[in-house]
Amino acid sequence: MPRNSRNPLYFIVIVTISLIVLVIVSSFPGNFINQLSSPFSVILEPVQKSVLTVTDLIRTGSAAVFEGAQIRRENEALLLENATLRNQVTQLEEAGRQYEELKSALKLKDKYDRYEIIGGRLMSREIGDWFDVFRIDIGITDGLIVGQTESFAVVDAQSRLVGRVLSTDATSAKILPVIHEGFSVSGKIDSVNGDLLRVRGDYDLKDQGLCMVDQIPMTASLHVGDVLVTSGLGGIFPPGIEIGEIIEIRESLSVQNRQAVLRPSVDMQNVSVVFVMKGQ
User: Fold this and answer.
1) Cα–Cα distance, 138 to 176 (Å, whole number)
2) Is the pTM of the predicted complex or chain greater than 0.85?
3) Which long-range contacts (CB under 8 A, 24 or more apart) does 195-203 make?
4) Most C-beta atoms within 10 A of its C-beta, which of 24, 69, 121, 147?
5) Bridge partner list, 245
6) Residue 128 — very low, low, confident or very high, per pLDDT cuts 50/70/90?
7) Among 195, 197, 206, which residue's Cα sits nearest to residue 163?
């Protein structure tokens, strides 16, 4: 009895497997089953379509996964290429800046041939005995030795006054900028026979990046927009270095006490490269 009961089960399993194989084989185009005309074709057609649909979905999904991986690889390659290009652009920009600085130094040398022009980069702005001084990366080893009666003018690449050398050590120097209250220079109006006057730093104007102009002669004709340059008096600053532009005239009851406000030509907040003019 158990043996006979198992025979129908075997029969069902064999039939089921046969049907599955038949469905799978018949789902491929051009096979011999599709060329037969039989009642089974009507029954198998929905199943064949389902198998084909699943096969197409699997094929489409596999292709999408492959294409997605390929796109990711291409994007990574493009990102790397962009980073490389940006780095090259940065290097070219830096090379261009260095070239312009060198060219400017040569122009300075031609203009002030009696001076040794030494270029330096701004290292830091610091607070010390003199507030808000600059430190640059050249010093005694570069020939900069200053004392109580000796100093050097400091200009930017366009020959505009930055300040003067305050002190030096072996490898660096402190620069006192024109806006500092401890700084002063003899200046004049940039015109033929321009009147002499004094440009100095002022504590109240320093935070605005401005300077004070005083010791203005009674007969001087000074106007907003006038450009002041160094007069050459005093021995530290060569004549003709641009200092800045008058932006305000402060009249007084006494003509002798007239004052003016000057905006330096150099932007002290953004200066990064300077040139020390060492007299020979």
Assistant:
1) 15
2) no
3) 195/219, 195/220, 195/221, 195/222, 196/231, 196/233, 197/222, 197/228, 199/228, 199/243, 199/244, 199/262, 201/177
4) 24
5) 227, 263
6) very low
7) 206
Is the domain 115-279 a CATH 3.40.50.300 member?
no
Distance CA 153, CA 233 (A): 13
Helix 40-111 crosses helix 2-26 at what angle (to 10 degrees)? 50
- Angstrom CA distances, 10 to 2, 18, 222, 251, 270, stand at 13, 12, 118, 119, 92
Angle made by CA atoms 255, 258, 260, in degrees to the nearest 5: 155
Distance CA 150, CA 145 (A): 8
User: What percent of the chain has a predicted confidence (pLDDT) above 90?
Assistant: 34
DSSP notation for the chain: -HHHHHHHHHHHHHHHHHHHHHHHHHTSTT-TTTTS--THHHHHHHHHHHHHHHHHHHHHHHHHHHHHHHHHHHHHHHHHHHHHHHHHHHHHHHHHHHHHHHHHHHHHHHHTTTEEEEEEEEEEEE-SSSTTEEEES--GGGT----SS---EEE-TTSBEEEEEEEE-SS-EEEEETTSTT-EEEEEESSTTPPEEEEE--HHHHTTT-EEEE---TT----TT-EEEE--TTSSSPTT-EEEEEEEEE--SSGGG-EEEEEESS-TTT--EEEEEEE-
CB neighbour class for 107 (10 Å; exposed up to 12, middle 13-18, buried from 19): middle
Cα angle at 201 between 197 and 206, to 5 degrees?
140
